[in-house]
Amino acid sequence: MCFPEVNGRRTTRKIGKLIDFNQEQADARAHEIVYRLKHKTEVIVPTVEMVAKQYRDEKLSKLRHSTRKSAESWLKCHILPRWGKTPISELEPRPVELWIDSCNLAPRTRGHLRELLHRLVDFSMWARLIPDGLNPIRLVTVRGSSKRRKRPRSLTVQEFQLLLKHLTGPLRTMAQLQVCLGLRVSELLALRWKDVDWISSRLHIEHGIVMQHFDDVKTDGSRGTKFLDPALLAILAAWKQVTDFNEMDDWIFASPVKLGRLPISYTCYKTALQTAAKEIGIAGIGTHSLRHTYRSWLDAVGTPLTVQQKLMRHTDIRTTLNVYGDVVTNEMQDAETKIAGLALEPDSRMISGSAND
Predict the structure, then answer these.
(1) Which of 214-218, 231-235, 236-240, 263-267 has the lowest mean pLDDT?
(2) Which of 40, 114, 272, 351 has its CA 20 to 30 A from that of 342?
(3) Average per-residue pLDDT in the chain?
(4) Chain mean position to CA 90
(5) Hey, which of 20-34, 112-126, 299-313 has the most confident mean pLDDT?
(6) 238: buried, middle or exposed (CB in 10 Å: 19+, 13-18, 0-12)?
(7) Per residue in 300-312, pLDDT tens?
(8) What is the DSSP string of 146-201?
(9) How far apart are CA 149 and CA 6, in angstroms?
(10) Of 51-55, 84-88, 175-179, 283-287, where does mean pLDDT reach its minimum?
(11) How far is it, in rounded angstroms, from Cα 221 to Cα 316?
(12) DSSP-derived secondary structure letter, 75
C-alpha cells in the first residue's frame, strides 16, 4: 500500500493480505503506520565529546576540585583531541590500548586516561545514551600504571636537621609540623587556628587546599585528629605569638602577600624546600618527601604496621583498626611522641642510618 509523503519521501508498506482486512481495518492499520513513520525519532549515537560534556555537568562537577582539574586536563589535552569525534559505542580495546601505549606520559597518567575512558563509557550506559552491556575498556591493559617512575625520597634525621637550618619563619614551622604528623601538603596549607585543640593537644584535619582552592580532604579516611607532642605544641604557640594572623578563623600559615586572605602557596613552600635541599646537597626533594620521611621514621622507631597505616590515614584498613581502637590510640600517641623527638630533639640512639626504606 502506498502512503503519503513522510519527510519528503513517498513510502510503501505491506499491511497484510486483502482477505485479512476489510476497508475500515485496512485504513486504521494504514493510519497507524503513517503515524509511526511521522513520529519516528532518529537514533543518534553520541560521540565521546558529547558524552564528556554531559559527564562534566552531571558527575565531574560533584568531585573534589583537584580531581576535576586533573580530569579536565586529561580530557582537553589527550582524550578529546584523539577520540572526541568518535561515537562512544565504537571505542574498541585494541586501538585504545595502542593509543595509550603511544602516549609519552608516565605510566600512572596513562592509567588515569584508561580509567577516565572507562568511566565515560560506563556513564553513557548509565545515562541510557547507549545500550547496557560490557564495557570494552575493561580489556585495555596499561602496564606499570600502579608503579612510580621514581622511588620516593625520604630524609634521615641528620638530613632533616640540616634542612631546617636553611628554612626560616613559617616555612620552618611548616616543615616541622609536616614531618612530625605526616600531613599531605594540601592538609598543611588548609590548617586554621581553630583546628588546634590546645587543651587536649590535638590537631583536627578536616580540609585541604589545592591550587589555593579550599576543599575537602583527599578521602574520608584522611579526615581525623592528630596528637600534638608538647614540643610541637610549643612551636605552634610560639608561631601564633608572632604572626599577624592569629584569630580563630585565620590560616595558621597565612600569606602576608595576600594579606592573610589565603595561606602561603604550594609553590612558595615547595621552592623553599628545594632551595634548602640544594644548599645541603640533597636532590629529589619535594613537599611529599616529608610525608614519606614520616612513614620511614615510624618504621624505624618500631611502630607496628597497622598503627603506621592508621597514622598515615589510609582508608583500606579502617575496619581492622577500629576493632582495636583503644590499643591503637595509645600506640599512635606513643609513635607521634617518638617522631617529634626525632624531628625536634633528635637522639641518634633512637634511629641511625638512612630512613629511605
Answers:
(1) 214-218
(2) 272
(3) 81
(4) 29
(5) 112-126
(6) exposed
(7) 888 887 788 888 8
(8) TS-SSPPP---HHHHHHHHTT--HHHHHHHHHHHHHT--HHHHHT-BGGGEETTTT
(9) 62
(10) 283-287
(11) 8
(12) I
Q: Which three cell numbers stand for residue 98?
A: 595502542
At 319 the pLDDT is 31
Cβ neighbour number for residue 185 with a 10 Å cutoff = 21
Amino acid (1-letter code) at residue 334: D
Torsion angle (degrees, nearest 10) of CA 317, 322, 323, 326: 130
Place of cell 612558595: 268
Phi-psi region of 348 (alpha: psi -120 to 50; beta: other; left: phi over 0): alpha
**Residue 174 grid cell:** 611548616
Instruction: Please give the Cα distance from 246 to 193 (Å, whole number).
Output: 7
Residue 37 three-state SS: helix
pLDDT at 166 over 90: yes
129: helix, strand or coil:
coil
Looking at residue 304, its amino acid is P
Tell me which amino acid residue 264 is: I
The residues near 236 (Cβ < 8 Å, ≥ 6 apart) are 173, 177, 196, 228, 252
Alpha helices of the chain — where are they, by DSSP H? Answer: 23-38, 48-58, 65-74, 80-83, 93-102, 107-126, 157-164, 169-181, 185-189, 230-242, 266-279, 289-300, 305-311, 318-323, 325-344
With beta carbons less than 8 A apart as the criterion, state whether 163 and 290 touch: no
Q: Rounding to the nearest 10 degrees, give the CA dihedral for residues 231, 233, 238, 239.
A: 120
For 64, the grid coordinates are 573534589
Rounded CA Rg of the chain: 30
Answer whether residue 321 shows pLDDT above 70: no
Residue 99 amino acid letter: W
